[in-house]
């Protein structure tokens, strides 16, 4: 089950064990000067990948950071629907864990990799990042409530609905305004490097997205993430959807 969960949860990323090891020896981020690791990858850059709602790209076809992020958004939507559709409480809990885990990883990776880049490269990026962080805070507060709820709780479904309503609006704005603005100001090579950094960063995110967690400088560093309760991560891995 544990191995299966690792495989399942890393379908879009890399094995956690491997990533933790490599990242400990290689700081990935530095505020106001994000270091994107250059590689000799020969993948070609792409433009729009047709990531409309409900459409998921194979991750190996994704090279631009905006498409990587959109891919996550589609997955989050899928997990939200799975929570709603699940008929057994046990399945609801599994999809709840998947949703909470993915949303926490996605949000913090954006805060570490994407929003600082917006501030650096996009003319109106500081305001844009500020708005996004504020919206993340609202989502985190709802996520923090939801993650502790059991499916028998009468507020379970209203809580995820409310969370998703806030998140969906944020996702719409991100895809419509923020990500296109970022992509217009960076070249394909940087976008590709950011996509890789985004993936690596996700491996360090704690299992619980606490509303009091710092989400802005000077804590937007790898060291800040490493202070996260990584031991609790394993507790969540023990209960993930099977066969995904
Ligand atoms: Fe976001
Ligand atoms: Fe996002």
TrEMBL record:
Q: Which InterPro entries match?
A: Hemerythrin-like
Which residues does the UniProt record annotate as the domain Hemerythrin-like?
66-182
- A Pfam family that this protein carries is Hemerythrin
Organism superkingdom: Eukaryota
By what name is this protein known? Hemerythrin HHE cation binding domain-containing protein
Top-level taxonomy: Eukaryota, Fungi, Dikarya, Ascomycota, Pezizomycotina
